Amino acid sequence: MGPACAINAVFIAIGLKISEHFGITGLYLAAVVGAIIGVLPAIWLARKINEGISEKS
């Protein structure tokens, strides 16, 4: 999920006119923020799956 959100964040940054003056650094930063945001739901989902498996054992 992290890479997918990173790509989406870069596309959003490209689409926003306000991000033009940040250049390539802004795109890298958007990708990093998107990847971090994309990893958080994956961690939550992994914990929920683990809790469900632990309860059935």
Question: Any overview of this molecule?
Answer:
- The chain has 57 residues and is mainly alpha-helical.
- The chain has one domain.
- Helix content is 84%, strand content 0%.
- It has 2 helices and no strands.
- The protein is rod-shaped and about 55 Å long.
Task: Write a concise synopsis of the structure shown.
It contains two helices and no strands. The protein is mostly helical and 57 residues long.
Please give the number of β-strands: 0
Radius of gyration, in Å, reads 16 Å
- Shape field: rod-shaped
- Tell me the major beta sheet: none
Summed up, the domain count is: 1
Distance from N terminus to C terminus (CA atoms, Å) equals 28 Å
| Succession of helices and strands | HH
Return the structural class. mainly alpha
Tell me, rounded to a whole number, the average pLDDT: 85
Which runs of at least 5 residues are low in confidence (pLDDT < 50)? Answer: none
> Helix segment count?
2
The portion of residues forming beta strands comes to under 5%
**Which range best describes the helical content: under 10%, 10-25%, 25-40%, 40-55%, 55-70% or over 70%?**
over 70%
